[in-house]
Amino acid sequence: MVFIPFFILCASILSILGVFLQVQVYAAPVFRNSTDDTIIVSRDDSYLDMTQYLSAHNTIRALHGASLLTWSEDLAAGAQTWADACNFKHSDGVLSEVPYGENLAAATGGEFDINAAVESFMGDEESYDPSSPTFSDFTQIVWKNTTIVGCAYNTQCGNIFPTSSGMATLHVCLYNPPGNVVGEAEYVSFSFYELKANLAFHHNFFLTLCGVSTSFLLVQASVFFDLRFVK
């Protein structure tokens, strides 16, 4: 029987838990042309927009156990066509030859940037009940079977809200394969928030067991991850 010193066992367990508690999510800044699968690399404004849309979506998807999306120029072109026309209504499938899901967001009275738009898509997250699922912009973002996205915006839409409200910014995102399909699983129900909470509990348990103060955990936690697991 191999004897492992207690302090080494403690250090090993805490190291493993610490790695998981420092999980970070990101979006790779590349995208594919959906017709020929060619990797596109650019450094202009459209590239920056693409990376922001991807990062905003993929950060959320990672928290719900869904794979990272890649960029579709075809879907982005369709989204731009719809945004340029300032159509704040669903397009009913006219923007692409492939089926797609669709999220729209518009606002006036200040800068409504890409991150704000994607955050607005998440408005139904808190009310989502896995035991009685409903479809929404949120479920489209985290839909497991969706693999590509293309988005666009227009900052000069004067016909969406009353004239007195000023110009609106409209964001349009298209997704393929489309989400919100009856009978398919939306996303992994064991969310990243629950995972972090469970890891933090066990991390605290082993710290106490190994004679390390809980205050040390709180200091480390404030550095490595946000203790506010839910909004």
Automatic annotation (TrEMBL):
The chain crosses the membrane at residues 205-225. The keyword Transmembrane applies. This is CAP domain-containing protein. Residues 48-183 form the SCP domain. Pfam families: CAP (PF00188). PANTHER family: CYSTEINE-RICH SECRETORY PROTEIN-RELATED. Keywords: Membrane, Transmembrane, Transmembrane helix. It comes from Lentinula detonsa. It comes from the Eukaryota. Coiled coil: none annotated.
